[in-house]
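Exercise 7. Given the encoded structure of a 148-residue chain, write a plausible sequence.
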Protein backbone atom coordinates (compact mmCIF):
# COMPACT_ATOMS: atom_id res chain seq x y z
CA UNK A 1 0.00 0.00 0.00
CA UNK A 2 2.16 2.89 1.19
CA UNK A 3 5.57 1.41 1.80
CA UNK A 4 7.47 -1.13 -0.21
CA UNK A 5 10.68 -2.94 0.61
CA UNK A 6 12.89 -3.70 -2.35
CA UNK A 7 15.48 -6.38 -1.76
CA UNK A 8 17.87 -7.80 -4.31
CA UNK A 9 18.17 -11.07 -2.41
CA UNK A 10 21.08 -12.31 -0.37
CA UNK A 11 22.59 -10.93 2.78
CA UNK A 12 24.58 -8.11 1.30
CA UNK A 13 21.78 -6.72 -0.81
CA UNK A 14 20.93 -3.09 -0.32
CA UNK A 15 17.55 -2.38 1.05
CA UNK A 16 15.78 0.71 -0.23
CA UNK A 17 12.51 2.05 0.99
CA UNK A 18 9.94 3.42 -1.41
CA UNK A 19 7.61 5.51 0.74
CA UNK A 20 4.58 6.99 -1.00
CA UNK A 21 1.81 8.98 0.59
CA UNK A 22 -1.68 8.32 -0.68
CA UNK A 23 -3.26 11.79 -0.92
CA UNK A 24 -6.62 10.71 -2.33
CA UNK A 25 -8.37 10.47 1.08
CA UNK A 26 -6.89 13.83 2.06
CA UNK A 27 -8.24 15.48 -1.09
CA UNK A 28 -11.66 13.89 -0.50
CA UNK A 29 -11.84 15.28 3.03
CA UNK A 30 -10.74 18.75 1.89
CA UNK A 31 -13.40 18.86 -0.83
CA UNK A 32 -16.10 17.85 1.65
CA UNK A 33 -14.95 20.58 4.05
CA UNK A 34 -14.94 23.13 1.23
CA UNK A 35 -18.53 22.26 0.34
CA UNK A 36 -19.61 22.49 3.99
CA UNK A 37 -18.00 25.93 4.39
CA UNK A 38 -19.57 27.19 1.17
CA UNK A 39 -23.05 26.13 2.28
CA UNK A 40 -22.75 27.55 5.79
CA UNK A 41 -21.27 30.84 4.57
CA UNK A 42 -24.27 31.52 2.34
CA UNK A 43 -26.70 30.54 5.10
CA UNK A 44 -25.21 33.07 7.52
CA UNK A 45 -26.03 36.13 5.39
CA UNK A 46 -29.80 35.91 5.49
CA UNK A 47 -31.92 38.88 6.36
CA UNK A 48 -35.29 40.38 5.62
CA UNK A 49 -36.44 39.67 2.06
CA UNK A 50 -36.67 42.89 0.02
CA UNK A 51 -36.68 43.71 -3.68
CA UNK A 52 -33.28 45.41 -4.20
CA UNK A 53 -32.73 48.16 -6.78
CA UNK A 54 -30.57 47.56 -9.84
CA UNK A 55 -27.00 48.83 -10.02
CA UNK A 56 -24.60 49.84 -12.77
CA UNK A 57 -21.51 49.34 -10.62
CA UNK A 58 -19.36 46.28 -10.23
CA UNK A 59 -19.17 44.13 -7.11
CA UNK A 60 -17.43 45.64 -4.11
CA UNK A 61 -15.11 43.97 -1.66
CA UNK A 62 -16.59 41.81 1.08
CA UNK A 63 -16.18 43.05 4.68
CA UNK A 64 -13.98 41.09 7.08
CA UNK A 65 -16.56 40.66 9.86
CA UNK A 66 -20.30 40.11 9.94
CA UNK A 67 -21.82 43.35 8.66
CA UNK A 68 -24.61 45.28 10.31
CA UNK A 69 -27.57 45.35 7.94
CA UNK A 70 -30.28 48.02 8.20
CA UNK A 71 -33.31 47.31 6.01
CA UNK A 72 -36.18 49.56 4.91
CA UNK A 73 -39.09 47.54 3.52
CA UNK A 74 -41.74 48.52 1.00
CA UNK A 75 -44.20 49.39 3.78
CA UNK A 76 -41.58 51.59 5.58
CA UNK A 77 -40.73 49.08 8.32
CA UNK A 78 -37.14 49.26 9.56
CA UNK A 79 -35.07 46.22 10.54
CA UNK A 80 -31.62 45.92 12.08
CA UNK A 81 -30.36 42.55 10.89
CA UNK A 82 -33.60 40.53 11.20
CA UNK A 83 -35.14 42.42 14.14
CA UNK A 84 -37.92 44.92 13.44
CA UNK A 85 -37.27 48.30 15.04
CA UNK A 86 -39.86 51.04 15.58
CA UNK A 87 -38.90 54.28 13.82
CA UNK A 88 -38.82 56.27 17.07
CA UNK A 89 -36.43 53.69 18.60
CA UNK A 90 -34.02 53.56 15.63
CA UNK A 91 -31.68 56.34 16.74
CA UNK A 92 -31.50 54.93 20.29
CA UNK A 93 -30.69 51.43 18.96
CA UNK A 94 -28.02 52.82 16.63
CA UNK A 95 -26.50 54.86 19.48
CA UNK A 96 -26.41 51.70 21.62
CA UNK A 97 -24.63 49.83 18.81
CA UNK A 98 -22.16 52.71 18.43
CA UNK A 99 -21.60 52.65 22.20
CA UNK A 100 -20.60 48.99 21.96
CA UNK A 101 -17.72 50.02 19.69
CA UNK A 102 -19.05 48.94 16.29
CA UNK A 103 -16.85 50.69 13.73
CA UNK A 104 -17.37 48.61 10.59
CA UNK A 105 -19.37 49.72 7.59
CA UNK A 106 -23.15 49.53 7.92
CA UNK A 107 -25.10 48.26 4.94
CA UNK A 108 -28.43 49.96 4.19
CA UNK A 109 -30.77 48.00 1.98
CA UNK A 110 -33.95 49.66 0.82
CA UNK A 111 -36.70 47.94 -1.12
CA UNK A 112 -37.10 49.19 -4.70
CA UNK A 113 -40.69 50.15 -3.90
CA UNK A 114 -39.82 51.88 -0.61
CA UNK A 115 -40.33 55.63 -0.54
CA UNK A 116 -37.11 57.54 -1.20
CA UNK A 117 -37.88 59.79 1.77
CA UNK A 118 -38.06 56.82 4.13
CA UNK A 119 -34.64 55.53 3.06
CA UNK A 120 -33.21 59.05 3.30
CA UNK A 121 -34.69 59.48 6.80
CA UNK A 122 -33.02 56.25 7.94
CA UNK A 123 -29.70 57.44 6.44
CA UNK A 124 -30.07 60.71 8.37
CA UNK A 125 -30.72 58.83 11.62
CA UNK A 126 -27.64 56.68 10.97
CA UNK A 127 -25.56 59.84 10.55
CA UNK A 128 -27.08 61.37 13.70
CA UNK A 129 -26.06 58.24 15.62
CA UNK A 130 -22.45 58.79 14.50
CA UNK A 131 -22.25 56.30 11.63
CA UNK A 132 -20.71 57.86 8.55
CA UNK A 133 -19.33 54.71 6.94
CA UNK A 134 -22.32 53.03 5.30
CA UNK A 135 -23.16 51.67 1.89
CA UNK A 136 -26.34 51.12 -0.08
CA UNK A 137 -27.03 47.51 -1.06
CA UNK A 138 -28.08 46.80 -4.64
CA UNK A 139 -28.80 43.61 -6.55
CA UNK A 140 -25.52 42.71 -8.33
CA UNK A 141 -27.30 40.30 -10.68
CA UNK A 142 -29.69 42.89 -12.08
CA UNK A 143 -28.04 45.58 -14.19
CA UNK A 144 -29.65 48.81 -15.29
CA UNK A 145 -29.23 49.93 -18.85
CA UNK A 146 -27.12 53.04 -19.36
CA UNK A 147 -29.14 56.12 -20.20
CA UNK A 148 -32.25 55.21 -18.22
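Solution.
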Amino acid sequence: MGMQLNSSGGRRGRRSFNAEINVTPFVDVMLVLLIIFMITATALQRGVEVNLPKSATSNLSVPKSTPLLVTVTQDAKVYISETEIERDELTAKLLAIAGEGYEERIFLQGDTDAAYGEVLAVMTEMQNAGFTNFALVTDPKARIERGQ
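Remark. The domain at 54-143 is CATH 3.30.420.270 (Nucleotidyltransferase; domain 5). Students should compare their own answers with the one above.
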